[in-house]
Structures are given as structure tokens and as C-alpha cells.
Amino acid sequence: MVARLGPHVRPERLKASLDLWLLALKKHFPFDLDEQIENDLRKISPSTIDRRLAAKKKRFKKKIYGSTKPGLLLRHQFPIRTEFWNVQTPSFVEIDLVTHCGFSAAGEYAYTLNVTDIFSQWVERRAVFGKGERGVRAALDDIRQAMPFTLIAIDSDNGSEFINEHLLRYCKKYTLGFTRSRPYKKDDNAHVEQKNFTHVRKIFGHSRFDHPKIIPVINELYAGELR
């Protein structure tokens, strides 16, 4: 579980998700879960989880999880947002890419560009095939035009799909503020990270979509029923 979620996951979140994990264990693994063990797991406290996983967290601590590769060349042109925006109106958004690679990051596969407004929690999503700079920029432009308010500023992680010349020119063209989070600090983008789960993972799970023909199908859902 630690290897799958990363070593920095909080025990409170593991505790909150145990019911879902137990359902998945029963469904996907061919063994009977002892009733006493299941009851003990449901009663376990976050502090006990933290103690029991301490050794495994230490082992995985130095690994970097996820598919985000830092964009290095232009980072100085995208200032770091060191504190949460104290916004009183819509138009300030966090953006992120969610992978649809299953349990293998090999080859090409689909991503979801998730754009979440901090004030209103409005969510817009678009699927793209691969994480190419032009494709991500085109998806962001489509979302910008679909949103019910005019974008003022965006904030992303340090991935090269965002920290690049194409998106820099795009933001200058439409006078968009652009900041980035601190490297490997997911809590800096807590709003969009939450929506990654509720608006992407809870719908599509961790399945692998590695054919371009799936993109218009997902986008039809994102622009229609799921919107």
C-alpha cells in the first residue's frame, strides 16, 4: 500500500480510505479475508497505522513517485506560489495531469487535464493522449473557453508538460498569471488533487487507456454527462 500510494501519504487519509481498500481486496484477490482481521482493520487508528508502516515508509522515502518530470529550463520564469491564494472570486485555478496508465508507465497512454477553480470548486476536465506540450496547451485553451468565468491565473506543479515555452507564450497572449508549486509538495495544490480523486479516479479508476480512439469518448463524457 505504501509503495502504491507513496511514502508521504498521511495516516488519516489511509484510515479514511480503508473501507474502499477492503472492498477492492475482496473483489480482486482470490482469498477470504478473516473476519477478525477485517474488524481490526476497520477499528485501527491513524496513529497505529503510522507506527505499523514506519519501516516501509523509511524504505520508500527516497523514491520519487508518479510520472511528473520537472521542467528545468524555464522554471525561473514561473514563480513559486509559497502560500494558498486568499481569493474571494472565481478565476484562480489549479491545474494538474492525471495518468491513465494502469500499473505500467511504459509507452503512450491517456491523461486527464484537470482544472479546478479554488473559490467555486468548479471543475473542467479534458483527456489528451500523451503529455505533449502542444496537446496540453490545446486542452487548456478548450477548457478556458468552456469555463463560465474568465481565467485570471493558473497554478501548476513543476512538470515539463506545464513548465515550457508553449504554455509561457500562451499565458502571455491571454494575460494569465502563472505560478507553480514547490517541487514534490502535492499539498500546495490540494484543491486540484482532491478533484483528481473525486472527479477522475472515482470514475475511471486506475485502468490503462492506451489507444488514441478513447480520447474523444472520454471527452464526450467530460463535456456532457459528467459535466
SSE class: alpha/beta
Helix segment tally: 9
Please tell me the total number of domains: 2
- Which H/E pattern describes the elements? HHHHHEEEHEHEHH
Q: What is the general shape?
A: globular
Radius of gyration: 19 Å
> Mind describing the biggest β-sheet?
5 strands, mixed
Low-confidence stretches: none
Strand content: 5-15%
Report the mean per-residue pLDDT as an integer. Answer: 85
Beta-strand segment tally: 5
Q: Roughly how much helix do the residues carry, as a percent range?
A: 40-55%
Per CATH, the class of the largest domain reads: Alpha Beta
For the biggest β-sheet, the strand order reads 3-2-1-4-5
> What is the CATH third-level topology name of the largest domain?
Nucleotidyltransferase, domain 5
Output the CATH homologous superfamily of the largest domain. Ribonuclease H-like superfamily/Ribonuclease H
Supply the CATH architecture of the largest domain: 2-Layer Sandwich
Can you put this structure into words, describing what you see?
By secondary structure, the protein is an alpha/beta fold. The chain folds into 2 domains: 2-60, no CATH class; 75-223, Ribonuclease H-like superfamily/Ribonuclease H (Nucleotidyltransferase, domain 5, 2-Layer Sandwich), CATH 3.30.420.10. The chain has helices at residues 2-5, 11-28, 35-43, 46-52, 54-60, 133-146, 165-173, 190-204, 214-223, and strands at 92-100, 110-117, 123-129, 153-156, 177-180. Strands 3-2-1-4-5 form a 5-stranded mixed sheet, sandwiched between helices. Strand 4 (153-156), helix 7 (165-173) and strand 5 (177-180) form a beta-alpha-beta unit. The longest helix is centred in the N-terminal third of the chain and has 18 residues, at 11-28. It is globular and about 60 Å long. It starts with a helix and ends with a helix. The mean pLDDT is 85.
